[in-house]
Amino acid sequence: MSDSRKTNEESLQAAALLAILAQGNREIEAGNFQDMEQVFGELDQDQPTEQCMNKNAPKR
């Protein structure tokens, strides 16, 4: 892959990421978000018990 093509692809990826961040900011400003503890609680409920008991998992 040529350097100019790689640079163009990287620019497109960066623009896509910025668009995602902008959308996220608009949703937060509109109040469309959940409390972090609620999200983690829902994720914990969806996992089988043996996964929730992972002793090597980082503590929250």
Short structural summary:
The chain is 70% helix and 0% strand. The protein is mainly alpha-helical and 60 residues long.
Report on the structure:
The chain is mainly alpha-helical. It has one domain (3-52). It is built from three helices and no strands. The protein has helices spanning 3-29, 36-46, 49-52. The longest helix has 27 residues, at 3-29. The relative contact order is 0.06. The model has no long low-confidence stretch (mean pLDDT 86).
Q: What are the SSEs and their pairings?
A:
Layout: H1 3-29, H2 36-46, H3 49-52
Name some characteristics of this structure.
mainly alpha; flat
Low-confidence segments, ≥5 residues, pLDDT <50?
none
Tally of individual domains: 1
How big is the Rg?
19 Å
Largest sheet: none
Number of helices: 3
Kindly state the percentage of residues in helix: over 70%
Class from helix and strand fractions? mainly alpha
Strand content: under 5%
